[in-house]
Specification:
The chain is α/β, with parallel strands linked by helices. The protein has two domains: 31 residues; 143 residues, Rossmann fold (3-Layer(aba) Sandwich), CATH 3.40.50.150. Helices cover 48% and strands 18% of the residues. It is built from six helices and seven strands, in the order ααβααβαββαβββ. The protein has a seven-stranded mixed beta sheet. Strand 2, helix 5 and strand 3 form a beta-alpha-beta unit. Helix 2 crosses helix 3. The protein is globular, with a radius of gyration of 30 Å. The N terminus is likely disordered. One of its GO terms (molecular function) is protein-lysine N-methyltransferase activity.
Length: 213
């Protein structure tokens, strides 16, 4: 009798062990699934936030986001002073500080329209908020999410661009094809090598070149 009881106890223990293994296995699978889902969610979130900033790096000719310094913005205003601009566009407007500063200086440079062209949606949103905060509701200040290479310049008489060296030649061709005679182009950081500037102001990376077409 004692032997039978002992054997029965052993069978029960073995059954308990056998039953516990699947439960443990399922639990580990669930933990793995949760971990994988969480990791995927974090990766998707980071891609959604960082994607617009990283995407230009995969373009043939990119215009990276490098905020203009106060000196650079001041130099742009300086070379445009007294020119009585009508419609100004900043290509690759970034955080909007150039457009907003030009709009705030309209008594010095003229202008009935100030437009920023920027591909990054987060920077476009930031620019609009900054404009609302610093300038109030101004219908003449606009920020558009658009590829600068696909944006037509013929509706503007003044173009501002903080370019990179590899894009200047192609941008020069775009300006020649789309801008009306007598238009003004302001280049910052890098000049248009084939054009003779009307004005040059500043030093080093703060240099600004003004051209008349």
């Amino acid at each position: 009798m004692e032997t039978l009881q002992s054997s029965g106890s052993t069978d029960i223990d073995e059954m308990s062990v056998c039953q516990s293994d699947p439960v443990s296995s399922i639990s580990k699978s669930q933990i793995g699934l949760i971990a994988a889902t969480a990791t995927g969610g974090v990766a998707t979130g980071l891609l959604a936030i960082c994607g617009p900033f990283l995407a230009p790096a995969f373009r043939r000719i990119c215009l990276p986001y490098v905020p203009a310094t106060n000196t650079q913005v001041s130099n742009v205003v300086h070379v445009l002073r007294g020119r009585r601009c009508k419609s100004i566009v900043d290509l690759g407007s970034g955080d909007g500080r150039v457009v907003n500063s030009l709009a705030a200086s309209r008594s010095l440079i003229g202008g009935s329209e100030f437009v920023g062209i920027e591909l990054n949606p987060w920077l476009v949103l930031y620019s609009r908020i900054a404009a609302l905060r610093t300038l109030g509701v101004k219908s003449e200040v606009q920020f558009k999410r658009q590829d600068l290479w696909k944006y037509s310049l013929n509706q503007h008489d003044t173009v501002v661009v903080f370019g990179v060296e590899c894009m200047m030649e192609e941008l020069q061709l775009k300006c020649e094809q789309e801008l009306e005679k007598g238009s003004t182009v302001v280049a910052c950081r890098f000049p248009f090598e084939a054009w003779k500037p009307k004005k040059v102001y500043g030093e080093g990376v703060d240099t600004v070149w003004l051209y008349e077409r």
